[in-house]
C-alpha cells in the first residue's frame, strides 16, 4: 500500500499547536513546474475528499499519523537540507494549524502547498499547486480501493470536489500557481476545458494554458505506463503542459519518496 501505514514516531506531548503527520522526508519534487527540485515533504493526514485513486491511502481512506508540535516539524525540516518545502497530505488545508506552519517556514524556504482546491488559505505560499478533482475521481463501489465501501463518500466527494471561490482565491493569492489535473483519459478533457474557463471567469489573474498541467493517473509504474502516452498526446493536442510523476518512475510507490 503506498504511503506509510506505520509511522516510525510516536505522538509527542509538545506544547502548543500540533499537526497529524503521516510522513516527513526529503526527496525530489516529482510533479509539476518544479519537478526535479530537491524538496522536503511534510505530509499531513486527513482529507475532506475521497478520490478512488488516492495514492496516499493512509491520509484519506485510512488516516494514520503521529501528532507533532509545529516547533518539532520546523526543527525536522531544518535538519534536512532542501531550500524547497512541500506541504501536502491528505488535504493540508483542512487543518487550521497548517497556516501557522506555513508562516513559521515562510522566511527561510520556498513553500509549495499541494491542495485539492476546495479550501482557502491566508498563509504565505510561493507555489499553490492546485489539483481540482474531476468527476472521474469520484469513488463508487466498483472503483473503490480493495476492502473499502465508499458509502456516503460517493455523494459527499461529488458535492465537495469543486469550489470555484476557493480556486479563485488560491490562484490569486499565491506568488505562483499551477492547476494540475489527474487525467484518466480523453473523457476528462471536456470537464478540464470547462473548469479552466470557469476559473478564468472568476479569478482576478491571468490563467495561461501553460499554468494548466495534465498529469497521468497512476500509483505505480505499471499503471502509469498505461496512461502517460495518451495523457501526453492530449496535452500536446490541447496546448496544455504535461507533467510526469518522476517519483513513481524512479521509486514506484515506495513510502517516503
Ligand atoms: C495525495 S494528493 C495531496 C494533496 C491534495 N489532497 C490534492 O489532492 O491535491 C497529492 C497529489 O497527488 C495527486 N494524485 C493522487 N493520487 C493520484 C494518482 N493515482 N495518480 C496521479 N496523481 C495522483 C493529487 O491529485 C495531488 O496532485
Ligand atoms: N517526490 C514526490 N513528489 C511529490 N509531489 C507532490 C507529492 C504529493 O504527494 O503531494 C509528491 C510525492 O509524494 N512525492
Ligand atoms: S483530495 Fe488528495 S489526499 Fe484527498 S483523496 Fe484526493 S488525492 Fe487523496
Ligand atoms: Mg504523492
Automatic annotation (TrEMBL):
It comes from the Archaea. Binds 1 [4Fe-4S] cluster. The cluster is coordinated with 3 cysteines and an exchangeable S-adenosyl-L-methionine. Mg(2+) binds at residue 56. The keyword Ion transport does not apply. Residues 34-253 form the Radical SAM core domain. [4Fe-4S] cluster binds at residues 47, 51, 54. Substrate binds at residues 28-30, 43, 88. Keywords: 4Fe-4S, Iron, Iron-sulfur, Lyase, Magnesium, Metal-binding, S-adenosyl-L-methionine. Its EC number is 4.3.99.3. Belongs to the radical SAM superfamily. 7-carboxy-7-deazaguanine synthase family. PANTHER family: 7-CARBOXY-7-DEAZAGUANINE SYNTHASE (PTHR42836:SF1). This is 7-carboxy-7-deazaguanine synthase. It comes from Haloferax massiliensis.
Amino acid at each position: 500500500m503506498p504511503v506509510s501505514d506505520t509511522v516510525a514516531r510516536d505522538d509527542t506531548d509538545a506544547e502548543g499547536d500540533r499537526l497529524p503527520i503521516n510522513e516527513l522526508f526529503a526527496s525530489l519534487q516529482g510533479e509539476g513546474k518544479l519537478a526535479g527540485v530537491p524538496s522536503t515533504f511534510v505530509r499531513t493526514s486527513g482529507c475532506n475528499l475521497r478520490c478512488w485513486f488516492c495514492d496516499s491511502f493512509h491520509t484519506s481512506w485510512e488516516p494514520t499519523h503521529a501528532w507533532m508540535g509545529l516547533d518539532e516539524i520546523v526543527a525536522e525540516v531544518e535538519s534536512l537540507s532542501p531550500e524547497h518545502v512541500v506541504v501536502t497530505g491528505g488535504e493540508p488545508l483542512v487543518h487550521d494549524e497548517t497556516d501557522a506552519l506555513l508562516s513559521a517556514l515562510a522566511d527561510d524556504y520556498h513553500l509549495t502547498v499541494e491542495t485539492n482546491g476546495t479550501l482557502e488559505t491566508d498563509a504565505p505560499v510561493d507555489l499553490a499547486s492546485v489539483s481540482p478533482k474531476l468527476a472521474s475521481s469520484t469513488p463508487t463501489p466498483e472503483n473503490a480501493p480493495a476492502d473499502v465501501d465508499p458509502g456516503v463518500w460517493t455523494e459527499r466527494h461529488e458535492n465537495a470536489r469543486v469550489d470555484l471561490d476557493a480556486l479563485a482565491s488560491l490562484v490569486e493569492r499565491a506568488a505562483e500557481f499551477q492547476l494540475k489535473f489527474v487525467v484518466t483519459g480523453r473523457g476528462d478533457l471536456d470537464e478540464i476545458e470547462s473548469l479552466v474557463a470557469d476559473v478564468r471567469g472568476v479569478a482576478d489573474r491571468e490563467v495561461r494554458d501553460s499554468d494548466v498541467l495534465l498529469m497521468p493517473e497512476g500509483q505505480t509504474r505499471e499503471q502509469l505506463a498505461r496512461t502517460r502516452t495518451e495523457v501526453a498526446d492530449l496535452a500536446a493536442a490541447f496546448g496544455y503542459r504535461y507533467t510526469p510523476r518522476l517519483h513513481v518512475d524512479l521509486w514506484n510507490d515506495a513510502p517516503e519518496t
